[in-house]
Amino acid sequence: MLDRKCAVFLSHPSDQIHCGFSRWKCHRSSCSFGSQSNDQANRSTRGGANGFIACELVAKANPQKYTFASANAPSRIGGEMFQVMSGTKLVHIPYKGAPQALTDIMGGQVSVGWSDLSTAVPLVKAGKLKALAVTGQDRLAILPELPTMKEQGFPDYQLSNWVGAYLPAKTSPMMVSKLNALMHAAVNADRAALDANGGHVILQSPEEFAKLQANDAAMWSRVTKAAGMEME
Predict the structure, then answer these.
(1) Burial level of 132, CB count in 10 A (0-12/13-18/19+)?
(2) Please, what is the Cα angle at 132 between 126 and 135, to 5 degrees?
(3) Residue 96 CB neighbour total at 10 angstroms
(4) What CA–CA distance (Å, rounded) separates 98 from 22?
(5) Residues 178, 192: Cα–Cα separation, whole Å
(6) Fold (CATH) for 7-156
């Protein structure tokens, strides 16, 4: 059982920043800037709905010009996964905490970043940050107009923070099953509160949770190796 919270991909709210991206009506494989100048590319990506394809193209046309902030492992993985899947190259700017990272995105010192919902959504609704994509499988009830990464051309992009419950390894199967049922009942009693905070409740059996954990660990391993990340 877990409460799974998606992250959001963010930028400065101004359309003047290159990664303000409008939605382009095309496939990633068939779009390119060609011989466009940077000014033409910038004009092409201003205004309109949040879109991800234009971001990829702008970043490819200007390798290592744009930056992404990270304040923890999930936000770092979010940026690295985007680069691996899109073939772009962003400059990583590490931060010790999310407040400073988001402040610098709001101020335009950093181009983009990834953040959990509880921290980012109030700033998005206040117009201080622009949300570009949901990193989870589904759209969010609190930001229903915000498309997912999958909808914007990245079908394999999946990044969520989850919180699960664990017991000592030697706990009897009977006790595990009983506690699992009790936790399901407790969560179902107040799902509205979790949903209101951006949580997406997934009620699983112990076996399903173990499979999810193994799949996520394998995914993180592939991304960190492909990105050349090292233990810090």
Answers:
(1) buried
(2) 115
(3) 9
(4) 26
(5) 24
(6) D-Maltodextrin-Binding Protein; domain 2 (3.40.190)
Residue 116 three-state SS: strand
Separation between Cα atoms, residue 6 and residue 118, nearest integer Å: 10
pLDDT digits (tens, 9 = 90+) for 157-200: 888 878 888 999 999 999 999 999 999 998 888 877 777 766 67
Of 50, 222, 71, 62, give the one whose Cα is nearest residue 152. Answer: 50
List pLDDT tens digits, range 108-145: 899 889 988 888 888 988 999 888 888 888 888 888 88
Answer whether 155's CB lies under 8 Å from 44's CB: no
Rounded CA separation 156/35 (Å)? 30
- Output the six-digit token pair for 97: 């905490």
C-alpha 213/C-alpha 191 separation (Å) is: 22
* Adjacent-strand bridge partners of 131: 10
Q: Yes or no: say if 136 and 4 are a contact pair by the CB < 8 Å rule.
A: yes
Tokens of 14: 């101004």
Q: Rounded CA gap, 79 and 159, in Å? A: 10
Structure tokens at 192: 């509205």
In sequence order, the 6+-apart residues with CB closer than 8 A to the CB of 208 are none
Q: Whole-angstrom Cα distance, residue 108 to residue 26?
A: 28
Sign of the CA dihedral with 120 first, then 159, 138, and 47 last: positive
